[in-house]
Amino acid sequence: MSYPCTRCGLCCQKIQYVPELKNFHNGNGICLYFKADVGCTIYQERPLVCRIDEGYEQLFNNQFSLTDYYLKNAEVCNYMQLEAELPSHYRVKLKDG
Ligand code: SF4
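That is the input. Now the predicted structure with iron/sulfur cluster docked in place:
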Protein backbone atom coordinates (compact mmCIF):
# COMPACT_ATOMS: atom_id res chain seq x y z
CA MET A 1 0.00 0.00 0.00
CA SER A 2 1.16 3.53 -0.67
CA TYR A 3 -0.30 6.90 0.25
CA PRO A 4 -3.13 7.76 -2.18
CA CYS A 5 -1.85 11.21 -3.19
CA THR A 6 -4.12 12.80 -5.79
CA ARG A 7 -1.36 15.11 -7.07
CA CYS A 8 -3.22 18.32 -6.41
CA GLY A 9 0.16 20.05 -6.00
CA LEU A 10 -0.82 22.14 -2.97
CA CYS A 11 1.86 20.74 -0.67
CA CYS A 12 4.46 21.99 -3.17
CA GLN A 13 3.06 25.51 -2.80
CA LYS A 14 3.09 25.75 1.00
CA ILE A 15 6.57 24.60 1.88
CA GLN A 16 7.25 27.60 4.11
CA TYR A 17 6.05 25.37 6.98
CA VAL A 18 8.70 22.71 6.29
CA PRO A 19 12.08 23.56 7.84
CA GLU A 20 13.87 20.94 5.70
CA LEU A 21 12.76 22.84 2.57
CA LYS A 22 13.78 26.35 3.62
CA ASN A 23 16.22 26.61 0.70
CA PHE A 24 13.65 25.42 -1.85
CA HIS A 25 11.58 28.62 -2.02
CA ASN A 26 12.07 32.36 -2.21
CA GLY A 27 10.01 33.23 0.84
CA ASN A 28 6.64 32.72 -0.83
CA GLY A 29 6.31 29.03 0.04
CA ILE A 30 6.16 27.88 -3.58
CA CYS A 31 8.80 25.30 -4.36
CA LEU A 32 11.30 26.49 -6.96
CA TYR A 33 10.92 23.11 -8.66
CA PHE A 34 7.11 23.22 -8.92
CA LYS A 35 5.54 24.06 -12.27
CA ALA A 36 1.78 24.50 -12.39
CA ASP A 37 1.26 22.48 -15.54
CA VAL A 38 3.82 19.79 -14.71
CA GLY A 39 3.99 19.43 -10.92
CA CYS A 40 7.31 18.51 -9.36
CA THR A 41 10.11 18.87 -11.90
CA ILE A 42 12.62 16.94 -9.77
CA TYR A 43 10.23 14.15 -8.82
CA GLN A 44 12.76 11.31 -9.05
CA GLU A 45 15.31 13.29 -7.01
CA ARG A 46 12.93 15.09 -4.65
CA PRO A 47 13.93 15.42 -0.97
CA LEU A 48 13.06 12.68 1.48
CA VAL A 49 10.58 14.91 3.31
CA CYS A 50 8.57 15.14 0.05
CA ARG A 51 8.33 11.34 -0.21
CA ILE A 52 5.42 10.34 1.96
CA ASP A 53 6.06 6.61 2.14
CA GLU A 54 9.86 6.66 2.21
CA GLY A 55 9.68 9.58 4.64
CA TYR A 56 7.59 7.47 6.96
CA GLU A 57 10.06 4.60 6.92
CA GLN A 58 13.09 6.79 7.51
CA LEU A 59 11.79 9.69 9.59
CA PHE A 60 8.53 8.93 11.34
CA ASN A 61 8.01 5.22 11.89
CA ASN A 62 9.19 5.52 15.48
CA GLN A 63 6.63 8.28 16.14
CA PHE A 64 3.38 7.14 14.48
CA SER A 65 1.73 4.00 13.21
CA LEU A 66 1.40 4.01 9.41
CA THR A 67 -2.37 4.35 9.77
CA ASP A 68 -2.06 7.42 12.00
CA TYR A 69 0.60 8.90 9.71
CA TYR A 70 -1.66 8.48 6.66
CA LEU A 71 -4.61 9.93 8.59
CA LYS A 72 -2.58 12.99 9.59
CA ASN A 73 -1.34 13.50 6.04
CA ALA A 74 -4.84 13.12 4.58
CA GLU A 75 -6.20 15.59 7.11
CA VAL A 76 -3.65 18.20 6.01
CA CYS A 77 -4.08 17.48 2.27
CA ASN A 78 -7.87 17.74 2.49
CA TYR A 79 -7.74 20.84 4.69
CA MET A 80 -5.51 22.63 2.17
CA GLN A 81 -7.79 21.55 -0.67
CA LEU A 82 -10.92 22.82 1.06
CA GLU A 83 -9.19 26.11 1.84
CA ALA A 84 -8.12 26.43 -1.81
CA GLU A 85 -11.63 25.37 -2.95
CA LEU A 86 -10.30 22.57 -5.12
CA PRO A 87 -12.88 20.22 -6.65
CA SER A 88 -13.83 17.27 -4.47
CA HIS A 89 -12.28 14.67 -6.78
CA TYR A 90 -8.88 15.73 -5.39
CA ARG A 91 -9.76 14.70 -1.81
CA VAL A 92 -7.52 12.03 -0.37
CA LYS A 93 -9.61 9.04 0.64
CA LEU A 94 -8.11 6.33 2.79
CA LYS A 95 -9.40 2.78 2.52
CA ASP A 96 -10.57 2.60 6.12
CA GLY A 97 -12.08 6.01 6.31
S1 SF4 B 1 -1.40 18.07 -0.95
FE1 SF4 B 1 -1.66 15.86 -0.61
S2 SF4 B 1 -2.88 15.12 -2.34
FE2 SF4 B 1 -2.03 17.12 -2.90
S3 SF4 B 1 -0.11 16.66 -3.97
FE3 SF4 B 1 0.40 17.01 -1.82
S4 SF4 B 1 0.38 14.95 -0.90
FE4 SF4 B 1 -0.72 14.80 -2.84
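The mean pLDDT is 95.
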